């Protein structure tokens, strides 16, 4: 079997692994904003944009991690990161490495990809026949 065939056969499972890791990492941002773990060193006023984003990060990250309503959660999360990038990071500098927006940019496009790629085989959506 050619190397590309072997790699292609693993692609759906690797998609699931990437989705799980990204969802958990995203969820940690929401945990920090709302429950102080990890301590982000900031307090956000209820109803403020970072407070709202924190709930999207927490709930969206959890849904993405387990693969439940993955496409919808990824779409909302992608949009949230686009808004965060353009409202918070882009005004500081054009370059993501300078404006600190690399994570927001990467989450935005990774979640956008999941909207189209779906959750992969290791997901609640797949178990329910909704992949």
Architecture overview:
The chain crosses the membrane at residues 12-32, 52-70, 104-124. It is a multi-pass membrane protein. With 131 residues, the chain is an all-alpha fold. Helix content is 73%, strand content 0%. The chain is globular and about 55 Å long. The protein has one domain (14-35, 46-119). The mean pLDDT is 96. The relative contact order is 0.16. Helix 1 crosses helix 5 (102-117), helix 2 runs antiparallel to helix 3 (70-89) and helix 3 runs antiparallel to helix 5.
Task: Give the helix/strand layout.
Elements lengths: L2 H33 L13 H18 L3 H20 L6 H4 L2 H16 L6 H4 L4
Keywords: Cell membrane, Membrane, Transmembrane, Transmembrane helix
Pfam families: DoxX
Subcellular location: Cell membrane
Count of distinct strands: 0
Share of residues in strands = under 5%
Total discrete domains: 1
Average pLDDT metric = 96
The major pleated sheet works out as: none
Distance between the termini: 28 Å
- Helical/strand content category: mainly alpha
C-alpha Rg (nearest Å):
16 Å
Number of helices: 6
Q: Any idea what the shape is?
A: globular
Q: Which stretches are poorly predicted, pLDDT < 50 over at least 5 residues?
A: none
Helix content estimate = over 70%
Order of SSEs, N→C? Answer: HHHHHH
Subcellular location: Cell membrane
Protein name: DoxX family protein
Main location: membrane
Membrane topology: Multi-pass membrane protein
